[in-house]
């Protein structure tokens, strides 16, 4: 990553909005959704919840029975042969259990790209990052110890944050289609000021693939926040910033379909849902 103070703003942030904190869905339901999606029988978020789209896809799956019945997994062919925990998962494995692993890794802050049931290089890299984070030998094999850690609740942020912009959020943290969104999006006009969500130090400022121009702030308790798709960066690495300081301006850099702020929080490198931590700041 090559990365390089202002008046307070009063913000009333409506957290009873589409980005209220989302609960983790069921990994087996997510695996079923991935299998259905591969057969064009499901087109919604891979979220691990049994909704009308999941049930409709199940009804259309020839030979299927109830959600997790052997007949349902058999109807998915080789994909359904292994449930999570029935075998060690390593690079090159494929199927229902790999999709469940990918889903759990994403919710624990280490997404591996598309939920597809294929244990490829990105899943391996995400698994290694999680194992290091969890204090497990990083051997890129998902065995009993790794799965036990992944079955624990996802990490949560220990700190509170002010809203990073005068705008209402839309997309929140969690599944988005067959991928996983690791932050909260705030659509706003280009050039709108972006605010530090908490006192901190600029850890990085510059260009990051996919994210465009970003600022990363380092806070206490090994927490960082990331502000992405900026049009301009107004701080430099190593600079201390106060909560509410303007650190950049909204833009559309990186992979962005329109001007907005993408805001993330991470704990020791694991992406966590910022929604429960956000409040208005009245400086």
Description of the structure:
With 283 residues, this protein is of the alpha+beta class. The chain folds into 2 domains: 2-20 and 156-279, Glucose Permease (Domain IIA), CATH 2.70.70.10; 27-150, Muramoyl-pentapeptide Carboxypeptidase, domain 1. The chain is 21% helix and 23% strand. The protein has helices at 27-38, 52-60, 70-75, 96-107, 121-134, 144-150; strands spanning 2-3, 161-162, 174-176, 179-181, 184-187, 193-195, 200-208, 212-218, 223-233, 240-241, 246-250, 260-267, 270-272, 278-279. Strands 1, 5, 6, 7, 8, 9, 10, 11, 12 and 13 form a 10-stranded antiparallel beta sheet that branches. Strands 2-14 form a two-stranded parallel sheet. A hairpin with a 2-residue loop joins strand 12 (260-267) and strand 13. Residues 1-18 have low confidence and may be disordered.
């Amino acid at each position: 990553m090559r990365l390089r103070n202002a008046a307070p703003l009063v913000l009333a942030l409506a957290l009873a909005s589409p980005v209220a904190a989302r609960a983790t869905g069921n990994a087996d339901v997510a695996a079923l959704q991935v299998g259905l999606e591969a057969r064009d029988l499901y087109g919604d978020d891979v979220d691990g919840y049994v909704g009308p789209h999941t049930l409709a896809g199940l009804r259309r799956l020839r030979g299927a029975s109830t959600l997790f019945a052997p007949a349902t997994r058999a109807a998915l062919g080789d994909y359904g042969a292994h449930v999570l925990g029935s075998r060690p998962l390593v690079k090159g494995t494929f199927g229902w259990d790999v999709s469940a692993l990918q889903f759990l890794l994403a919710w624990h802050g280490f997404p591996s790209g598309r939920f597809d049931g294929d244990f490829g290089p990105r899943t391996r890299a995400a698994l290694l990052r999680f194992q290091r984070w969890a204090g497990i030998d990083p051997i890129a094999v998902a065995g009993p110890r790794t799965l036990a850690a992944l079955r624990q609740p996802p990490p949560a942020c220990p700190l509170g944050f002010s809203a990073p912009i005068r705008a209402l959020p839309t997309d929140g943290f969690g599944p988005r289609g067959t991928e996983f969104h690791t932050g909260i999006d705030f659509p706003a006009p280009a050039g709108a000021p972006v605010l530090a969500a908490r006192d901190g130090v600029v850890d990085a400022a510059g260009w990051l693939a996919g994210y465009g121009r970003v600022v990363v702030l380092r806070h206490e308790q090994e927490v960082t926040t990331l502000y992405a798709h900026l049009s301009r960066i107004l701080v430099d690495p190593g600079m201390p910033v106060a909560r509410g300081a303007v650190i950049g301006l909204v833009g559309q850099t990186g992979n962005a379909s329109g001007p907005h702020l993408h805001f993330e929080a991470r704990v020791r490198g694991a992406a966590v849902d910022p929604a429960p931590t956000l409040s208005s700041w009245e400086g």
